[in-house]
C-alpha cells in the first residue's frame, strides 16, 4: 500500500505515523527526543526513528514509504532542507533533509513545526475551507502560520508567521530575541504561568491553574488573564490588519482553556477593530496531532510535485 512517513519532532517527544494517500493513519508511534543527550544524539534518534518507520512499512504494508515529511522546531530553511537553529535542541545548520534522504532512499520534505501544524489545521482542521487563515499557537512561545489557498507561506527567509515577536508593549519586558515588549512575553502559556506562579507564590502553578482560578473569580487570576488577553488582542489586530485572514485559528496550551480564553478574546479583538473585517476566531481542532498530520501532507505534496500524482486529503 502506498504511504508516506510523517514525523513531528518536539523538544521532549517525537510523534510519527505512516499515512495513506487518503489521509488514513496506518501506523502511529511516539518516542522521546532525548535532547539531554545533545544535538548529535537527537539527529541520530530522528534518523533511527525514520528508518524504523520505513522498515515497518515494508514489513506490514508491503513496500517502503514513497516519501517522508518531517516537522522540526526553530529556524528552518525549508528550501534547502536545513534545520538552521533550535534553542531547545541545541543544533545549528543540520542538513536534515539530505541525511534523511540518504537514510530512507526516498524524497523528504522538511518543515517548521508551527507552519506544518498550521498546514494541517488549514486543510483538514479548524481552518478547512478558508481561502485565507492565520494559525496562532500559544505555547511556551507564540508563533503563527499564514495560510493562503491551502498552503502555508514561509516568507523569503523562513521567518513568516513570527507573531510572537510583534512588539505590543514598547519598552516593556525584555525578550530573548533582543527586543522589548514582545507579544510572547505577555500572552504565551509560559508568560501566564510565570505571572500566576509569582502571584500565588507557588512555583509549580501554571497557566491551566490560572485559568481555573479565573473561573472561580480569583481577582489576581482575572487581572493576569485579562492582561494576557489584552496583549494577545493587540498582537492579533496588528496581524489581521496586515493579513486580512478569513479565519483565525488559535491553538497551543493556552487555547485548552476553551471559552475562558475565547469569550474575552473575541470581545477584545472586536473592540479594537475599526475598518478591518473581523475574522472568525476558532479553537484549533487537531491538538498535538497537527504537526504529524501536517508532516504527512508535506510528504504527499512533495510526491504530487515530483510525479504528478493527484492526492486526496
From TrEMBL:
- One Pfam family here: ROK
Q: Does the keyword Kinase apply?
A: yes
Entry keyword set: Kinase, Transferase
Superkingdom of the source?
Bacteria
Which InterPro entries does its entry note? ATPase_NBD, ROK
What GO MF annotations does this protein's record show?
Answer: kinase activity
**Could you confirm whether the keyword Heme appears in this record?**
no
What family does this belong to?
A: Belongs to the ROK (NagC/XylR) family.
- Name listed for the protein in its UniProt record: Sugar kinase
Amino acid at each position: 500500500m502506498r504511504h508516506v512517513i510523517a514525523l513531528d519532532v518536539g523538544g521532549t517527544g517525537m510523534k510519527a505515523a505512516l499515512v495513506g494517500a487518503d489521509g488514513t493513519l496506518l501506523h502511529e508511534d511516539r518516542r522521546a527526543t532525548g535532547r539531554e543527550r545533545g544535538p548529535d544524539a537527537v539527529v541520530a534518534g530522528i534518523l533511527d526513528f525514520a528508518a524504523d518507520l520505513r522498515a515497518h512499512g515494508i514489513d506490514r504494508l508491503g513496500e517502503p514509504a514513497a516519501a517522508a515529511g518531517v516537522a522540526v522546531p526553530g529556524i528552518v530553511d525549508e528550501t534547502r532542507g536545513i534545520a538552521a537553529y533550535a534553542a531547545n535542541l541545541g543544533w545549528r545548520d543540520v542538513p536534515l533533509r539530505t541525511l534523511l534522504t540518504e537514510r530512507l532512499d526516498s524524497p523528504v520534505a522538511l518543515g517548521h513545526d508551527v507552519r506544518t501544524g498550521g498546514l494541517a489545521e488549514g486543510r483538514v482542521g479548524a481552518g478547512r475551507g478558508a481561502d485565507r487563515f492565520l494559525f496562532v499557537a500559544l505555547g511556551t512561545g507564540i508563533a503563527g502560520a499564514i495560510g493562503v489557498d491551502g498552503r502555508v507561506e514561509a516568507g523569503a527567509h523562513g521567518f513568516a508567521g513570527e507573531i510572537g515577536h510583534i512588539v505590543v508593549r514598547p519598552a516593556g519586558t525584555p525578550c530573548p530575541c533582543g527586543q522589548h515588549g514582545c507579544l510572547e512575553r505577555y500572552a504565551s502559556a509560559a508568560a501566564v504561568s510565570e505571572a500566576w506562579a509569582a502571584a500565588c507564590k507557588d512555583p509549580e502553578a501554571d497557566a491551566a491553574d490560572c485559568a481555573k482560578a479565573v473561573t472561580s473569580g480569583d481577582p489576581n487570576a482575572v487581572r493576569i488573564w485579562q492582561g494576557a488577553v489584552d496583549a494577545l488582542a493587540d498582537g492579533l489586530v496588528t496581524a489581521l490588519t496586515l493579513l486580512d485572514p478569513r479565519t483565525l485559528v488559535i491553538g497551543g496550551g493556552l487555547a485548552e482553556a476553551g471559552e475562558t480564553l475565547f469569550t474575552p478574546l473575541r470581545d477584545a479583538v472586536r473592540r479594537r477593530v475599526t475598518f478591518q473585517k473581523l475574522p472568525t476566531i476558532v479553537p484549533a481542532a487537531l491538538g498535538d496531532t497537527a504537526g504529524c498530520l501536517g508532516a504527512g501532507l508535506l510528504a504527499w505534496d512533495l510526491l504530487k510535485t515530483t510525479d504528478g500524482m493527484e492526492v486526496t486529503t
